[in-house]
């Protein structure tokens, strides 16, 4: 097994660089096992967005099985995009080995990495959604 991370496509393209996602708020709904990150995305780091404009966005990660947050300067992982899907995840394999069985169905759970300006979120979950929020009253 060889772990590799691939960028997650979004409505504004692939997100590149440390100065692309700025975290504003975190919410974890324990009952739904849902992680929500409220961010500002800089279009300068997007492969398919009009340049020079920032947008509010929401990243929702559903059915979270496991997660960790690391300060970016101490994180030693892939940096080819701010939103990554880790294929053949060593973390999922390790979690399954600890559990003594294949508790995490690799077809149902995925390992995502969300890199913001100061923090990185590694999350094993069933889905990730990136949504640019509408501008309200020119704000």
What is this structure's SSE topology?
Blueprint: E1 4-7, E2 21-29, E3 34-42, E4 54-62, E5 66-71, E6 83-87, H1 90-99, E7 110-115, E8 119-125, E9 127-132
Antiparallel strand pairs: 1-6, 2-3, 3-4, 4-9, 5-8, 6-7, 7-8
Q: Summary?
A:
The protein has 139 residues and is mainly beta.
Question: How would you describe what is shown here?
Answer:
This protein is mostly beta strands and 139 residues long. It has one domain. Helices cover 7% and strands 44% of the residues. The protein contains 1 helix and 9 strands. The model has no long low-confidence stretch (mean pLDDT 89).
Key features of this structure:
139 residues; mainly beta; five-stranded antiparallel beta sheet; four-stranded antiparallel beta sheet; 1 helix
Task: Order the strands across the largest sheet as they lie in space.
Answer: 1-6-7-8-5
Q: Please mark out the parts with pLDDT under 50 across 5 or more consecutive residues, or reply none.
A: none
**SSE order, as H and E?**
EEEEEEHEEE
Task: Assign an overall shape.
Answer: globular
Number of domains: 1
Rg calculated over all Cα atoms: 15 Å
In percent terms, what proportion of residues is strand? 35-45%
What is the number of E strands?
Answer: 9
Helix content: under 10%
Give the oligomer, counting copies of the same chain as homo and different chains as hetero: single chain
Quote the distance from N terminus to C terminus: 47 Å
Assign the structural class, choosing from mainly alpha, mainly beta, alpha/beta, alpha+beta, or little secondary structure. mainly beta
Number of helices: 1
What is the residue-mean pLDDT, rounded to a whole number? 89
Biggest sheet descriptor: 5 strands, antiparallel
């Amino acid at each position: 097994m060889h772990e590799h991370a691939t960028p997650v496509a979004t409505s504004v393209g692939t997100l590149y660089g440390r100065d692309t996602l700025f975290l504003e708020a975190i919410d974890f709904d324990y009952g739904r096992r849902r992680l929500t990150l409220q961010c500002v995305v800089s279009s300068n780091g997007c492969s398919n967005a009009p340049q020079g404009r920032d947008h509010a966005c929401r990243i929702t990660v559903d059915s979270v099985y496991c997660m960790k947050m690391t300060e970016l300067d101490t994180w030693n992982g892939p940096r080819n995009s701010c939103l990554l899907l880790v294929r053949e995840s060593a973390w999922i394999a390790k979690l399954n080995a600890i559990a003594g069985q294949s508790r995490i169905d690799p077809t149902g759970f995925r390992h995502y990495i969300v890199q913001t300006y100061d923090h990185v979120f590694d999350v094993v979950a069933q889905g990730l959604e990136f949504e640019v929020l509408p501008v309200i009253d020119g704000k």
